[in-house]
Design goal:
This protein has 9 helices and 12 strands. By secondary structure, it is an alpha/beta fold. Helix 2 crosses helix 3 and helix 5 crosses helix 9. One of its GO terms (molecular function) is DNA binding. InterPro entries: LysR_HTH_N, LysR_subst-bd, WH-like_DNA-bd_sf, WH_DNA-bd_sf.
Length: 301
């Protein structure tokens, strides 16, 4: 039995007329009649009562119609899924990352995506959050990992929480707190902080102020920088401290130490964003990897 036999049967069952069913199927009536007879012989059951004036389903035909329709629906769904998966395995995908995210996201999400979809040319692009918003709206990147302020609103972008990462204190090697196993956050009150520029990373600024405010102080921002590693290098000179996501400990930088913070350890949230509307197969597959890595529901079904 082939799928075409099921299509022939369903057409006759719906039209209850062999001539109309044949025209609908774009075949001649004798061929259709012969195929239905062959199907009945294979099943060992009569599917239609035929007279010169009418065609109607037998009880066996009624039962078979239900299952035949389901089988055709399943086959069509399988075809769509296969085509969707084939489309998701080719093409190009540009993905933006804030500098502080590259040390965790690149390894986990991008690594897994490249292993699973080697035919897609995935292009990671290090970009600050404000630049990513513009790139997403322009369509020059498909997905962005960024930190947005809580009051950010846009009907043109979908933004979802991706991961919350613990913060660590970044100190000059000779700092008075560098010998501690864990640094109390309040001990950093009065220190000169180095952070990314506000206009580039407004979400980072907001979360930093919130974290420090919880510890009872407002950070004294003494230096802003556009590059994470430049900031690390400036910290090594001895004049600044910083709070960065724990994954930045992988950065090899002479003259600085990464210290865990005392409980309760503050966290910073990283979001994933994409342009509203229909997702390309490659983008949907990438966001599926994000769900797998983060353990969070990101894309609405």
């Amino acid at each position: 039995m082939e799928l075409r036999h099921l299509r022939y049967f369903v057409a006759v069952a719906e039209e209850l007329h062999f001539g109309r069913a044949a025209r609908r199927l774009h075949i001649v009536q004798p061929t259709l009649s012969a195929q239905i007879q062959r199907l009945e012989a294979e099943l060992g059951a009569q599917l239609f009562h035929r007279t010169k004036r009418s065609v109607r389903l037998t009880e066996a035909g009624k039962a078979f119609l239900v299952e035949a329709r389901l089988a055709l629906e399943h086959s069509e769904r399988a075809v769509r899924e296969a085509r969707r998966m084939a489309a998701s395995e080719t093409g190009r995908l540009d993905v933006g990352f804030v500098p502080s995210a590259t040390y965790s996201v690149l390894t986990d999400v991008v690594g897994l995506y490249r292993r699973r979809y080697p035919g897609v040319d995935l292009v990671p692009r290090e970009m600050h959050s404000s630049v990513q918003v513009e790139a997403l709206l322009e369509g020059s990147i498909e997905v962005g990992f960024l930190r947005l302020p809580s009051d950010h609103e846009s009907d043109e972008l979908e933004v979802r929480p991706f991961v919350r990462e613990q913060l660590v204190a970044v100190l000059p090697r000779g700092h008075r707190l560098a010998s501690l196993r864990r640094v109390p956050l309040e001990a950093l009150a009065g220190e000169s902080f180095l952070i990314p520029r506000r206009e580039r990373e407004p979400g980072y600024h907001e979360q930093l102020l919130e974290v420090c405010g919880t510890a009872g102080f407002v950070p004294k921002v003494a230096q802003e920088t556009t590059e994470l590693q430049v900031g690390m290098a400036l910290t090594a000179t001895g004049g600044y401290v910083g709070l960065f996501p724990a994954s930045t400990r992988h950065v090899k930088m002479t003259g600085v130490v990464f210290k865990r913070l005392a409980e309760p350890v503050p966290e910073m949230e990283l979001s994933v964003a994409w342009q509203s509307g229909e997702l390309s197969p490659a983008t949907r597959a990438f966001l599926g990897i994000c769900e797998e890595v983060s353990g969070r529901k990101i894309v609405d079904s």
